[in-house]
Write a structure and sequence with these properties.
The protein has three helices and six strands. The chain has 108 residues and is of the alpha/beta class. β5, α2 (68-76) and β6 form a beta-alpha-beta unit. The longest helix has 11 residues, at 46-56. The protein starts with a strand and ends in a 10-residue tail after the last helix.
Length: 108
């Protein structure tokens, strides 16, 4: 499973359309983290970010606020979106792997 998390430092970026940094992580069949890398985007753009997500073959997106248009586009592309998540990227990935991540969740 390939996961993309929008970033603002170590935290999940509050807005999808203003994201300039993402973490791309790959999890194995048993939930173990196999690979994680940070990608700095050239500029904030929801359109370009969506294109990047599809091009990278991402299965799951974890983000803060996202406009309905982009949310629906990613769903149409069969990408699972967990939106309005507040917390760190590592905590969000841990919850996702355990199956306890839900949209609009505040992670502690």
């Amino acid at each position: 499973m390939k996961i993309l998390v929008t970033l603002s430092g170590q935290e999940i970026a509050p807005r999808f359309d203003l994201t300039t940094e993402v973490m791309i992580a790959t999890c194995g069949k048993h939930g173990e983290l196999e690979d994680a890398r940070i990608v700095v985007l050239p500029q904030p753009s929801a359109d370009n970010l969506c294109h990047f997500i599809v091009k990278e073959g991402v299965d799951v997106v974890i983000c803060g606020a996202i406009e309905e248009e982009y949310f629906q586009y990613l769903l149409w592309k069969k990408i699972k979106v967990f939106d309005s998540i507040i917390g760190t990227a590592t905590e969000a990935i841990k919850h996702l792997v355990k199956g306890t991540l839900v949209p609009r969740q505040i992670l502690t």
